[in-house]
């Protein structure tokens, strides 16, 4: 199992957290997503390596931006 952490900007509420979790959770290979609203950290668990661009695209689909990979 692989765990990767990303910093996401723009999240301000619980709905933001839910949106990011839902979109990132749909990326192929992702097995778990944890979002910390206070820090903006998104922790992604996966079966193996997941393309960072796919995670960034999922975050953008939710309406936010990855600032650190």
Please write out the topology.
Blueprint: E1 2-9, H1 14-25, E2 30-36, E3 41-46, H2 52-62, E4 65-68
Antiparallel strand pairs: 1-3, 1-4, 2-3
Helix pairs in contact: 1-2
What does this structure look like?
This protein has helices at 14-25, 52-62, and strands spanning 2-9, 30-36, 41-46, 65-68. With 69 residues, the protein is an alpha+beta fold. A four-stranded antiparallel sheet has the order 2-3-1-4. Strand 2 and strand 3 (41-46) form a beta hairpin. The longest helix is centred in the first third of the chain and has 12 residues, at 14-25. The two termini are 18 Å apart. The model has no long low-confidence stretch (mean pLDDT 95).
Strand % is 35-45%
Q: Work out the oligomeric state of the chains in this entry.
A: single chain
* Global outline: globular
Tell me the number of helical segments per DSSP (H or I, 4 or more residues long).
2
How much is the radius of gyration in Å? 10 Å
Provide the residue-averaged pLDDT: 95
Largest sheet: 4 strands, antiparallel
Instruction: Briefly note the structural class of the backbone.
Output: alpha+beta
Which stretches of 5+ consecutive residues score pLDDT under 50?
none
Order of helices and strands: EHEEHE
- Order of neighbouring strands in the sheet with most strands: 2-3-1-4
Report the end-to-end length measured between terminal Cα atoms. Answer: 18 Å
Helicity, as a percent range: 25-40%
Number of strands: 4
